[in-house]
Design a protein that fits this description.
The protein is built from twelve helices and 18 strands. With 442 residues, the chain is of the alpha+beta class. It has three domains: 77 residues; 135 residues, Jelly Rolls, CATH 2.60.120; 123 residues, 2-Layer Sandwich (Herpes Virus-1), CATH 3.30.40. The two termini are 60 Å apart. Pathway: Protein modification; protein sumoylation.
Length: 442
Amino acid sequence: MAENQDPEFRAFIEKKVPTLPVATLKKMIRTLNRNGPSQFYFIKLSGNKAELVKRLQTYLLKAEQSPNSAARKTAKTIVLAECESPADKSKGSTYDWSPLTFKSSPFYTIIERISPYKLCEAQNSVARVTIGFRLRSQHIMQLKTPDLYRAMLFSTDVDLDHLDPGSLKEKLIEFPLIANLDVNQQQFTGNLQGSKRKPGTTNPADISDLCIHIIDRANSIQFVYPACPKAYIMALYLVKISTVEEIVEKIKTHKKMEKATVLEKINRSSNDADIEATSSLVSLKCPLGYQRIQFPCRSSYCNHIQCFDGVTFLKLNERTPSWTCPICNRVLNNWNELVLDGYFEDILDKVDADVDRVVVEVDGSWRIPDKEQDKEEPVVIKREDIIIHTTSDSESDLDSPHPTPEHGAKRSSQIIDLTLSSDEESWVQPKRSRPNSRPHKK
């Protein structure tokens, strides 16, 4: 395939041009002779239909393979515009949509476009658009591994009054409201609206299982939408899927913010004259799943020490891609902002599993809160059929294997199975150490 070849335009030249009526062929030739690329030759208007078709195809194939992108675009725009009926013509119907890109996602990567672009224009009443496509043998082979490859319909809004390549970059996924999507007369039941109908909070429509997986068999997408004030552009793409586990490994390998870097940020913030630095109480539980954080993450642009669990965050955004920090409600510009926090990871590694909060001092040192130190739970010792509950009010009682209650002190309670022998009744109460109250080193 030539470097500059456009498969869709070539298919139009080879298959569509021979079917055009003579009047359309002549009108197309006149327009090309008048407004077409100046470097190409003049097309004769004499002769029968077969001769007109051959001359026009030769001209267009030469234009399609030209290294001059402006010449290719001019020739393509002219012939496509002449083929449209008056009802089909609009500001965007003949526009070159190839600069269109979508905001990246960690969950899929676009491999190639399968269908033509289809414009859904703003309407005052119910409208219907049809997108036809055919799967090639390579597509079918790839879709046989559904965990790796999927066919997804992408859609985004466009402003037809201000169309330019720059306005088509990093577009958010968005479908017309209250739309109905059918693929090969089977209804798509997934969500097209997202969270509170905000652009970018829904996923492309995965229609893989509704496609006809036969080489070159015609597939049809029917999209029906009611009165709509905006225009949308759609196309079907083949994408490669990434799992949450794979994304986590990428973050661990390439996106870890080391402990020293985090400490440097903390110290820089504490030295800021405009900020009154105080200690912070930081939770070790994720604000999303309310469980202990296992994979501490946050945006590299967020200034708070508090982290959330990255796995939980990714799973939620896999379903509804809002990409909003649950700590400060800041929307991430790109998922690549997500980092593994080495400082927070170090805290989780050093504290016991039952500790759910720490106090972070202004210099980056941290300690378990006093409330955790003073909290004293009954010790439960299990030995076969014997269960002994012990409580005490003084450290001296804990040090004595058989504490004697003093006046006003609470008596230790014991629950002992009396069916045991005297040898089995003997036991030694373990000595409990007081939690270390000194701050941990950075």
